[in-house]
Amino acid sequence: METISVVVVDDHQIVRDGLVALLGALDGVTVVGSAADGREALHVVAEAEPDVVVMDVSMPHLDGIEATRFLLGRRPQLRVLMLTMNEDDDTVLAAIRAGACGYLLKGAGAGEVHRAITSAAAGQMVFGASMAGRIATLLARGTAPAAAVPFPELSDRERTVLQMIATGRSNGEIAAELHLSDKTVRNAVSAIYAKLEVAGRAEAIVEARDAGLR
Q: Which residue intervals define the domain Response regulatory in the entry (predicted)?
């Protein structure tokens, strides 16, 4: 069996270190990196090129759902497995719609996590025993509300750039952190201004923060 390379993303250091230790002890699994938030995960994944990312949902700077959208936009073959305490229906569906291949709660045992990573790497959808029935019902119903997405007129990349603008990042810092060219970021910023009908960066920051992006 080929070794599965994994990156762990969680903003709580104790949890992150525990996961790294746990996963590193599993047969056939090698932890090749870790990150403290979604934004740092973009760097780590770009450098480590893992098979699977084990991702928390609620994190500062860039949450797990937005980070998943961005990562899969750049590497569609990547497998992202959510491992979180958050189990509300909207968050679960938002994660699936972002492209996550699975959703486990942090109470899962080592064996369950091992099976989930192996299944995710094999291209399967993975849901913990406590989640599977609920998710099947939600998907079959097809009417459950998705988590509200701010500024639906923006592309995923533009929304990510706007979120980083709201944190006070300059265009150069955004380009470096997202591994984009300065021109690509400038074009995204111009598109954001046009779509939000704002005059400049200050107004864009106000709009973004009013919508909860920060």
A: 5-121
Burial letters 35-49, b for 16+ CB under 10 A, else e: bbbbbbbbebbeebe
- Does pTM surpass 0.70? no
Which residues constitute the domain of residue 101?
4-141
Mean pLDDT of 90-106: 85
- When the pLDDT of each residue in the chain is averaged and rounded to a whole number, the result is 86
Q: Is there a single domain that holds both residue 89 and residue 176?
A: no
Q: Are residues 162 and 132 in the same domain?
A: no
How far is 115 from 117, CA to CA, in rounded Å? Answer: 6
Q: Which residue has the tokens 């250091």?
A: 13
Residue 150 domain flag: no
Residues 135 and 160 placed together within one structural domain of the fold: no
Each residue's pLDDT tens digit, 180-210: 889 999 999 999 998 888 888 888 988 888 8
